[in-house]
From TrEMBL, chain A:
This is GsiC_2 protein. It holds the Pfam family BPD_transp_1. The chain crosses the membrane at residues 9-30, 136-157, 178-200, 212-232, 271-296, 316-342. Belongs to the binding-protein-dependent transport system permease family. Residues 134-335 form the ABC transmembrane type-1 domain. One of its GO terms (cellular component) is plasma membrane. InterPro entries: MetI-like, MetI-like_sf. It is a multi-pass membrane protein. GO terms for biological process: transmembrane transport. CDD domains: TM_PBP2. Keywords: Cell membrane, Membrane, Transmembrane, Transmembrane helix, Transport.
TrEMBL record, chain B:
It comes from Jannaschia aquimarina. GO terms for biological process: peptide transport; transmembrane transport. Its main location: membrane. PANTHER family: DIPEPTIDE TRANSPORT ATP-BINDING PROTEIN DPPD, OLIGOPEPTIDE TRANSPORT ATP-BINDING PROTEIN APPD. InterPro entries: AAA+_ATPase, ABC_Ni/Peptide_Import, ABC_transporter-like_ATP-bd, ABC_transporter-like_CS, Oligopep_ABC_C, P-loop_NTPase. It is an enzyme of class 3 (hydrolase). Pfam families: ABC_tran, oligo_HPY. It is a peripheral membrane protein. The gene is gsiA_4. Belongs to the ABC transporter superfamily. This is GsiA_4 protein. It comes from the Bacteria. Keywords: ATP-binding, Cell membrane, Hydrolase, Membrane, Nucleotide-binding, Transport. It is found in: Cell inner membrane. The lineage of its organism: Bacteria, Pseudomonadati, Pseudomonadota, Alphaproteobacteria, Rhodobacterales.
Length: 349, 692
């Protein structure tokens, strides 16, 4: 088992490297850099000035070298004056002396760059925003997973019954409604002051300090409902299949009551397939988070991503992408390990 | 808790039962006017081909017919109480407690995600209100009763960690946990190997005596029913056609279907030239296309228009405790021998066409498939195989699953290449030539008929196209017309109407599909046809027809037939020579007479004893092998059979455990064994036919 996790971990690192390189490559294309130069220095720079501005900051070096620097495995770009003294060091923050900071400053050194939008360290921003999103994700999971499993199991235990039909309709409807539709509808119905019920608040800004039922229900529900329908459909499909299996007949003809057949015999087998789907759903949730956080003005990772993308904040974008890559890969690792525990037929030496 | 402990009437009384399934289109009657009763301690067999409604009866008794099934007439009484009138709670109390069931596929009937122990303990906890400890003790006791080694470890295992035979023992243990009054066995051994089957049958009989349980034994295998049951009921197309005591029905049958069934199975008295099998003509009627009057009428030799198809035929008394659903049984001369055949005798085997010498096939498998790590292990699928096959000879390759017979077939076909040794076809060595490197003539020379006709035809290609495709591969003919002509001839050859060329495989029955498979194999005038269990997926009455066809074509074409099978009855009937395999080794090789008579290899002896024979005159010696076939991944040292051999003590020293025995030659009859000449001489025949 230890070996297995170690191997998987190696694969994760490799995947993360590839994915970040792709993001790095795309965000460091010349048009982006040109925009960066113009926003950072002077919007009316001539093309020559842009080139020299970029060149002076090491932006025009070969892509692999720049990537290695960003990672922190190659020394950062420095420019020396005519006397050999360091006059520019990428590692130096505003206010720091270029010759006093170290030569390596990359992701590995914990230096994720400096956000041009928020004018602060990327890692600090990510930590703060990430925590906000984590809280949102946590509540989404708490609502979505048990809800979806219940829906799926109830629908699947008696295929074709009225209960099945109505629950299936509900789950199809929720999956077919994207967040930007359901979010708007929820705000209109439950939060708008004109016609709505005014049960909940239409903004979740206050939830960043203090989560209440009133300010957090709508964002959580908006994200959860979308994923819920999908997982419920998968669970139902798996459950109906299990309920027709021969060992369920064995249990029935052993005299086991229907409730116990579902709980003791069918459930564990029925959860094997949806488990992978649930774990795959977390990366998908990140999508929803972007929309919902913007819609409800909740300043988490998704909101930060929108800001970073809108303002060409290259290093912040890279930071967000690292977080996403880690979330995706770690959930997949959890899914593989959990699968082994659910399904006794798979054993990892 | 058991109900009516003092009840002493029949345990199960089924009276004029009719069960139908309801679809959107129509009502489909599955069982009609079916009556049977089971006395305490009695074993009743329910025999019939697939689709005759025997499993529906079992599910009807369990009151578990699903959403679409319903009992539309008659009653099922268990210990005098009508099951149809019971509430769900009462039924739950009876299921698994007083009526228990054993299923066909043990792997599918056990919950894969629950430990064996937990599944067993559920029964007493549910029905006797036992606590965990008491239930565990009971489970341990029952697992010991079904003769499984190391019961504590087994209780802690998951189903996939056990072999098929062990799983079936667990299913039996589960059924016996509550000491039921009635045990329903639905084809309990169909999915198992013969020697394992023999062990299970032995166990079921023994437990039946020990616990005094009544049994309803459902099977398509007449031999098995003879070994296990006191009375038998033969079903055809939803109706019971004949019932009575075993000896009565087997020796004094009074229904044409029963007679036809017996004539279509290879009994020891059958012989491919003098007394060939008689196939039942026609096809099983679909439930909604049953003929008026007697269901068997259209396929019956004694059919008389106006009488047999006039009105529904009732069950009538045909002797003490013997009933038959035939209007003419008094008029039929039951002792008349079947029509003598005018089949030409098989041509004498010619020159050798295939020579296999010292052939080996090893597979390397990674120790851990998921992570790919660990040391690679070697599976020795075939070990030093030596034999030759002659023109127009039928060589049977016999053995149980995992003995390497399919690997051998794959190497002959070129789907695998040999690790060592040679395969000589004609005068060319082909062991290292994969099928891609073989020329069209070599490919068409060695062809195969597959086991499962349902999966080996392309479902989206017409029958004619599939055969023409084979002809194209074999480079037959110069034009499409040539090939079409040849394809139609091939359809004639396998006795299928020419219209079938434009049909899709799904429109064909199992037997017809297998005929298409045979046509495909013989398309390029194959010199060697490897038939891998060609009839085992088919119903008994169809088996005879397909077997006959195969032999007829073989005679005409002087083809060498390599007939792979685990069924010794059919092998005895059609083969000239037999090769017995065990764990990759050829353990015995000789003519059919030699292999079926002593001296035997100890494994052949056990195999012969394990085959159920549906003939009351046959006396068999009981040899039940202990344990399971060892894994080819980890074969025992020395003789492959030493772990289960009953003759092992006769060999001095630990010879069996250390050395692979040499091939001993008794005038061409070869046996791979360490036993001495005297021991071989002391062997008695396993199957003897008692004098009338």
């Amino acid at each position: 088992m230890g070996l297995f996790i170690l191997r998987r971990f190696g694969v994760i690192v490799l995947t993360a490297l590839c994915l970040t390189f792709i993001v790095f490559f795309l965000t460091n294309l010349y048009p982006n850099l040109e925009k960066l130069a113009k926003t950072q220095a002077n919007a009316r720079m001539s093309d020559d000035q842009v080139v020299s501005w970029l060149d002076n900051r090491g932006y025009l070096d070969p892509m692999p070298l720049k990537y290695a620097r960003w990672l922190g495995v190659a020394p950062a770009y420095v420019r020396t004056g005519d006397d050999g003294a360091i006059v520019f060091n990428r590692c130096a923050r505003p206010g720091e002396e270029p010759d006093e900071v170290g030569r390596y400053c990359g992701v590995l050194q914990g230096n994720w760059g400096f956000s041009t939008v928020f004018r602060s360290d990327v890692l600090d921003i990510l930590a703060e925003r990430g925590w906000q999103t984590a809280k949102l994700m946590f509540w989404v999971t708490v609502v979505m997973v048990p809800g979806a499993l219940l829906l799926g199991v109830f629908a699947g235990m008696r295929e074709g019954s009225k209960l099945d039909r109505s629950l299936s309709t509900v789950s199809i409807a929720t999956t077919a409604t994207p967040e930007y539709v359901s979010g708007v509808i929820f705000i209109a119905v439950f939060a708008s002051s004109a016609v709505g019920l005014r049960w909940f608040k239409g903004t979740a800004t206050s939830a960043m300090e203090n989560i209440t039922f009133e300010n957090f229900t709508l964002p959580v529900l908006t994200v959860a409902l979308y994923g819920m329908g999908y997982i419920a459909r998968m669970t139902r499909a798996s459950m109906t299949e299990v309920m027709t299996a021969q060992y369920i007949r064995t249990a029935r003809l052993k005299g086991v009551a229907f409730r116990d057949i579902v709980l003791k015999h069918a459930l564990r087998n029925a959860l094997i397939a949806p488990f992978t789907v649930i774990m795959l759903q977390f990366p998908w949730l990140l999508n929803g988070v972007v929309i919902v956080e913007t819609l409800f003005n909740y300043k988490g990772i998704g909101w930060t991503l929108v800001q970073a993308a809108g303002n060409n904040d290259i290093e912040l974008l890279l930071g967000v992408s690292i977080i996403s890559v880690i979330v995706v890969l770690v959930t997949q690792l959890i899914s593989d390990i959990g699968y082994v525990y659910l399904n006794p037929r798979i054993r990892i030496a | 808790m058991k109900q009516n402990p003092d009840y002493d009437g029949p345990i199960l009384e089924i009276d004029r039962l009719s069960i139908s399934f309801f679809t959107r289109l129509r009502e489909i009657p599955a069982v009609m006017d079916f009556s049977v009763s089971v006395q305490p301690g009695e074993a009743v067999g329910l025999v019939g081909e697939s689709g005759c409604g025997k499993s529906t009866v079992a599910l009807g008794v369990m009151q578990d017919l699903g959403v679409n099934g319903r009992i539309v007439g008659g009653t099922i009484k268990f210990k005098g109480r009508d099951l149809a009138e019971m509430s769900q709670a009462e039924l739950r109390d009876i299921r698994g407690n007083e009526i228990a069931m054993i299923y066909q596929e043990p792997m599918a009937s056990l919950n894969p995600a629950m430990k064996i122990g937990k599944q067993l303990m559920e029964v007493p906890i549910l029905h006797d209100g036992a606590d965990e400890q008491a239930a565990y003790d009971m489970a341990l006791q029952t697992v010991t009763d079904v003769k499984l080694p190391d019961p504590a470890r087994i209780l802690d295992a998951y189903p996939h960690q056990l072999s098929g035979g062990q799983q079936q023992r667990i299913v039996i243990a589960m059924a016996l946990m509550s000491k039921p009054s009635l045990l329903i066995l639905d084809e309990p051994t169909t999915a198992l190997d013969v020697t394992v089957e023999a062990g299970i049958v032995e166990l079921v009989k023994e437990l039946g005596v020990k616990y005094g349980t009544s049994m309803l034994f459902i099977s398509h295998n007449l031999g098995l029913v003879l070994e296990t049951c006191d009375r038998v009921c033969v079903m055809y197309s939803g109706e019971a056609v004949e019932d009575g005591a075993i000896a009565e029905v087997f020796d004094r049958m009074r229904h044409p279907y029963t007679q036809a069934l017996f004539r279509s199975i290879p009994l020891p008295s059958a012989n491919k030239t003098a007394r060939p099998l008689v196939a039942i003509p026609g096809n099983f009627p679909l439930p909604h296309e049953r003929p008026p009057g007697c269901n068997f009428g259209p396929r019956c030799d004694y059919f008389e228009a106006g009488r047999c198809d006039a009105q529904p035929i009732p069950m009538r008394d045909a002797g003490p405790g013997h009933n038959s659903r035939c209007v003419r049984f008094e008029e039929i001369d039951w002792d008349a021998p079947p029509e003598a055949s005018d089949k030409p005798p098989a041509p004498a085997p010619g020159a050798p066409v295939l020579k296999v010498s010292n052939l080996k096939k090893y597979y390397e498998v990674a120790a851990n498939a998921l992570t790919g790590g660990g040391e690679a292990r070697v599976v020795k699928a075939n070990e030093t195989i030596d034999f030759e096959a002659r023109e127009s000879e039928t060589l049977a390759i016999v053995g149980e699953s995992g003995c390497g017979k399919s690997t051998l077939a794959k190497m002959l076909m070129g789907l695998e290449t040999a690790t060592d040794g040679t395969i000589t076809l004609g005068n060319e060595e082909i062991q290292d030539k994969p099928i891609e490197d073989r020329g069209p003539s070599q490919v068409s020379d060695v062809q195969m008929v597959f086991q499962n006709p349902f999966d080996t035809l392309n479902p989206s290609m017409t029958v004619g196209r599939q055969i023409t495709r084979a002809l194209e591969v074999f480079d037959y003919g110069n034009s499409d017309d040539d090939r079409r002509q040849r394809m139609l001839q091939l359809l004639d050859l396998v006795k299928l109407p020419r219209e079938f060329a434009d049909r899709m495989p799904r429109q064909l029955s199992g037997g017809q599909k297998q005929r298409v498979g045979i046509a495909r194999a013989f398309a390029g005038d194959a010199k060697i046809v490897v038939a891998d269990e060609p009839v085992s997926a088919l119903d008994v009455s169809v088996q005879a027809a397909v077997t006959d066809l195969l032999m007829e074509i073989q005679r005409e074409h002087k083809t060498t037939l390599l007939f792979i099978s685990h069924d010794l009855s059919i092998v005895r009937y059609l083969s000239d020579r037999i090769m017995v395999m065990y764990l990759g080794h050829v353990v015995e090789l000789g003519t059919t007479e030699e292999v079926f008579a002593p001296p035997y290899h100890p494994y052949t002896e056990a195999l012969l004893s394990a085959v159920p024979i549906a003939d009351t005159h046959v006396v068999k010696k009981q040899i039940v092998l202990e344990g399971d076939i060892p894994s080819a991944m980890n074969p025992p040292p020395g003789c492959p059979f030493q772990t289960r051999c009953r003759w092992k003590e006769k060999v001095p020293g630990a010879l069996c455990e250390t050395e692979v025995p040499p091939m001993r030659n008794f005038d061409g009859h070869q046996i791979k064994c360490h036993l001495s000449e005297e021991d071989f001489a002391s062997m008695e025949p396993v199957i003897q036919i008692a004098a009338e």
